[in-house]
Every structure is written in structure tokens, then in C-alpha cells.
Design a protein that fits this description.
By secondary structure, this protein is of the alpha+beta class. It folds into two domains: 6-177, Immunoglobulin-like (Sandwich), CATH 2.60.40.680; 182-254, Type 1 dockerin domain (Orthogonal Bundle). Helix content is 16%, strand content 35%. Strands 2, 4, 6, 7, 9, 12, 13 and 15 form an eight-stranded mixed β-sheet that branches. The chain has a five-stranded mixed β-sheet with strand order 5-8-3-1-14. Helix 2 (200-212) runs antiparallel to helix 4 (233-245). It is globular, with a radius of gyration of 19 Å.
Length: 254
């Protein structure tokens, strides 16, 4: 496993200690916590890269988060992981370890830094690249358990008492398409999910884009939820009203 720095080693070992030496992870207390790998669309005709956000939900303070992932295509390369604009950007110890098609992503506060407060939002973004000559394909990004030197790395949260537990996990996809004809049916699939659902993940994506400088929706027409002008707060209000208050569905694409 390619280790970038000594601090990286220390960070991952400290966080992984809760799951090493045969310790059994406890059950997730309270409401189910969640790691949500988004789905995104990228186009061979427009670029040679794709960005997949990861969001998370926790209902109690956390001292650390570890997310272990595997992607199933040899045709794409994970170039980097960005914490910019995320809920854990402030943490000193954060980073990634990569090996072949797997990646360990970690973040935890140290010293006087506050714990990761209960809430929901962005954990970070996976940045993939590929050759423009590859075949169109759907890359699955899923959770994995990795054993290295008798230490187990897995998607794990650690509570304020450093007790480790496994959150729920939802896998995501990078859908690499040939054409940029992107809006299908009704608007609202802001995050470019592969099966075209309109759900809370689209709300999170739109909030991140409008207020925190996150990536623009992979299909602008899908992000223009109300079909009026450019993407703005009005689209967010329309989407929230539809999902949570039985408001009218987003209009069809042109």
C-alpha cells in the first residue's frame, strides 16, 4: 500500500486501532448513521474526468471517520480526493491511502479541534480520470474491508468515547457516457444518479453547489429543477417542496 507521509500512517493506525486486535464493532446507537456515495455522470465528448461526491449522516459527535472503497473498472484512475467544502475539512489528520482499485479515506480531529458534530453533508469528492478512448461504462464504487499487517480497515465511525461502529452504506456509480444528451424525462436528478431517482441526495448536492462552491450538476438541465432561468435558490425550494411537502413534480426537460 502506497503510504504518502508518516502523518498519514499515524492517522490511519490510530483510527483503525478500534477495529484491530479482534475487537467486535458495536451496533450503531440511535438513528442509523449513513455513508452515501453519490452517483455521477461524465461524458467522453466533454472531458476525461469525473467527480463523485461522498456524503455522510451522523446523529452523535464523532472522533473519527474511516471510509474504505473499491471501484470495479481498470479503465479509470483515482487521481485525488478533495475535502474542500466538506464537514471535516477543518480536521488536521485527514487523507487517503490508495492501492490498485481500493482507497482508504480518513479524517479525525486532534488536540483542541472540535469533534465532528451531528448532522449531514459532504465528506469529500473522489476525482477520477480516464482516457477518452475507453468504452462507455458504469463504474461501481462500493465498500470493502481491507486487512493489512493484521489491521482491519473498513467503513467505520468512532463515537466520542472512541467506540467504533459501522454505519449504513450506500454504494454509488460513475456513469461514463458518450453523448452529453443528459436530461431524461423530468428534471430533478441533480446528482446524476444512474437510475434517475429524485431524492434527498439531490437536495444535498444542490445545497453544496449553490452555497458552498461544490461541483455543478453533471447535467445543468436536471439541476434547473423549476425550468426557469439559471440554477438558483428557487430550484432548491422547488425540490424540497416536491420531496418533503408533496409539491408538484419538476417539469419535463425540453
Amino acid at each position: 500500500m502506497r503510504v504518502r507521509t508518516l502523518l498519514t500512517i499515524c492517522a490511519v493506525v490510530v483510527l483503525a486501532a478500534a477495529t484491530s486486535n479482534g475487537q467486535v464493532l458495536r451496533d450503531d446507537p440511535g438513528l442509523p448513521d449513513l455513508v452515501l456515495v453519490d452517483s455521477a455522470i461524465a461524458y467522453l465528448t466533454d472531458s476525461d474526468s469525473g467527480i463523485v461526491p461522498i456524503n455522510f449522516i451522523n446523529d452523535e459527535p464523532l472522533v473519527g471517520i474511516e471510509v474504505t472503497l473499491i471501484y470495479d473498472s481498470p479503465d479509470v484512475t483515482l487521481d485525488s480526493f478533495s475535502f474542500v467544502g466538506s464537514r471535516v475539512e477543518y480536521a488536521t489528520f485527514k487523507g487517503i491511502l490508495t492501492s490498485d482499485s481500493t482507497v482508504i479515506i480518513y479524517s479525525f480531529p486532534v488536540g483542541e479541534e472540535p469533534l465532528i458534530a451531528p448532522g449531514s453533508g459532504l465528506f469529500g469528492r473522489l476525482h477520477y480520470s480516464y482516457l477518452p478512448t475507453i468504452d462507455t461504462q458504469i463504474v461501481t464504487i462500493d465498500s470493502i474491508t481491507i486487512i493489512d499487517d493484521d489491521i482491519e480497515y473498513s467503513t467505520t465511525f468512532s463515537d466520542s468515547a472512541s467506540n467504533a461502529f459501522k454505519p449504513q452504506f450506500q454504494k454509488g456509480y460513475l456513469d461514463i457516457q458518450e453523448s452529453a444528451s443528459c436530461c431524461i424525462g423530468d428534471r430533478g436528478n441533480v446528482d446524476g444518479s444512474i437510475d434517475e431517482p429524485v431524492n434527498v441526495g439531490d437536495v444535498i448536492y444542490l445545497v453544496d453547489f449553490i452555497f458552498f462552491g461544490g461541483p455543478e450538476p453533471p447535467c445543468i438541465e436536471e439541476g434547473n429543477v423549476d425550468g426557469i432561468g439559471e440554477i438558483n435558490v428557487g430550484d432548491l425550494i422547488y425540490l424540497v417542496n416536491f420531496i418533503f411537502h408533496q409539491g408538484p413534480p419538476p417539469p419535463s426537460c425540453p
